[in-house]
Each structure stands twice: as C-alpha cells, then as structure tokens.
C-alpha cells in the first residue's frame, strides 16, 4: 500500500472519530445520570485522542492532516440525525450503541489492512478503546440504567 493509500484509510478513521466526538457531545447533554455522563465524556476524549494520533501518522507519511469541519456529513450522520430526535438517557445510549457498533466495525476492518507494524499497533490500541466503549454502552442498555433513579 502506498503512503497515499494509507493516509486515505487513516483520514476515514479520523473522520469517523470526529463524528463520534460530535455524537458523544450530543449524548452527554441528554443523559441525566452523572456517572454515565462522566463516562461518555471520557469516551469522547478517547475519540479526540484518536484523531490526534491518526493525524500525527498522516503528517509523518507526508499527508495532510484531516480537516474536521462540522458541516461535512460524516458516516455517523444517520446517528447524529437520530440523536436530534431522541431525549433522555435511554435514547442517547441507544444511539451511541449503534454509533459504537459502526466505529468497532470500521476499526476492526482497519486492523485487517496490510499496514506497517507501528501503524498497525496504533490502530489496534484505538480499536481496543472502541471495544471498551461498545461493551460499556451495551452493558448500560442491558441494565436499563434509565430505570434506576
Ligand atoms: Fe468509541
């Protein structure tokens, strides 16, 4: 794979992370349970870190760091649109569950690419965060935390 192609894959992942940041910001506003809100804010931060570590690799490869513009329709747009119409913890967790399923799928696919070992290692680390996010959100949905007040 050429550096150009690697950069294209990494930019796609970074865009996905950017969409996830936006989705988490909206979700946090909808969640009325402080411990869950705090956890979602940490996940949002993980996604910001991913954007940074992917951008660093892109720049090292001679590519342009991705431009993150809020007006660009991202791959999670469907999730973001859904987020506008949901209210409360239950709705927010439902949207984050589907968003995290998508980020997990895309990160898993990225781990299968033939990439240099150091880049592969970074993607594996980011993917581990994604697995943790999905596991947490699915657990809270299964517990029906919105019923615990
Ligand atoms: Fe995530």
Explain what this protein looks like in three dimensions.
- It is elongated, with a radius of gyration of 16 Å.
- The chain has helices spanning 3-30, 34-60, 77-85, 88-111, 117-142.
- The model has no long low-confidence stretch (mean pLDDT 90).
- The chain has one domain (3-147): Up-down Bundle (Ferritin), CATH 1.20.1260.
- The chain has 149 residues and is mostly helical.
- The structure holds fe (ii) ion.
- Fe (ii) ion is lined by residues 20, 43, 47, 100, 103, 130, 133.
CATH superfamily: Ferritin, core subunit, four-helix bundle
Radius of gyration: 16 Å
Level of helix content?
over 70%
Distance between the termini: 52 Å
CATH-scheme architecture: Up-down Bundle
Number of domains: 1
Structural class: mainly alpha
Shape: elongated
Q: Notable features of this structure?
A:
binds fe (ii) ion, Ferritin, elongated, mainly alpha, 149 residues, single chain
Give the topology.
Layout lengths: L2 H28 L3 H27 L16 H9 L2 H24 L5 H26 L7
The chain binds fe (ii) ion.
Give a concise summary.
The protein is an all-alpha fold. The protein has helices spanning 3-30, 34-60, 77-85, 88-111, 117-142.
């Amino acid at each position: 794979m050429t550096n150009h192609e690697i950069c294209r894959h990494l930019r796609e992942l970074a865009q996905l992370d950017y969409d996830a940041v936006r989705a988490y910001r909206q979700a946090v506003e909808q969640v009325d349970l402080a411990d869950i809100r705090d956890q979602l804010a940490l996940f949002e931060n993980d996604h910001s870190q991913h954007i940074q570590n992917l951008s660093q690799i892109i720049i090292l490869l001679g590519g342009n760091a991705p431009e993150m513009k809020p007006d660009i329709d991202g791959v999670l747009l469907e999730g973001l649109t859904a987020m506008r119409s949901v209210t409360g913890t239950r709705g927010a967790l439902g949207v984050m569950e589907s968003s995290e399923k998508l980020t997990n799928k895309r990160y898993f696919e990225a781990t299968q690419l033939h990439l240099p070992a150091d880049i592969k290692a970074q993607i594996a680390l980011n993917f581990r965060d994604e697995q943790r996010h999905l596991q947490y959100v699915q657990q809270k949905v299964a517990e029906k935390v919105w019923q615990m007040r």
